[in-house]
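Good morning C.,

I know you're traveling, so I'll keep this short. The sequence:
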Amino acid sequence: MTTAELIKLLKKNGCTFVRNGSNHDIYKSPITGKEFPVGRHSSEEVKAPTLHTILKQAGIKQ
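The tokens, ready to paste straight into the viewer:
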């Protein structure tokens, strides 16, 4: 999954953009209430452990 696809999935599940970090964008999940970073490299593949962590923080089951 690329970063662009991940962001689409996050938005589909109600996550909202909060702010820009230095190399990452910060999103917030309405499910968990947590804020978490997502890299800005939209065409790059997100590594499996990173993807798992982001989805867990967002409260999205996959």
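Safe travels,
E.
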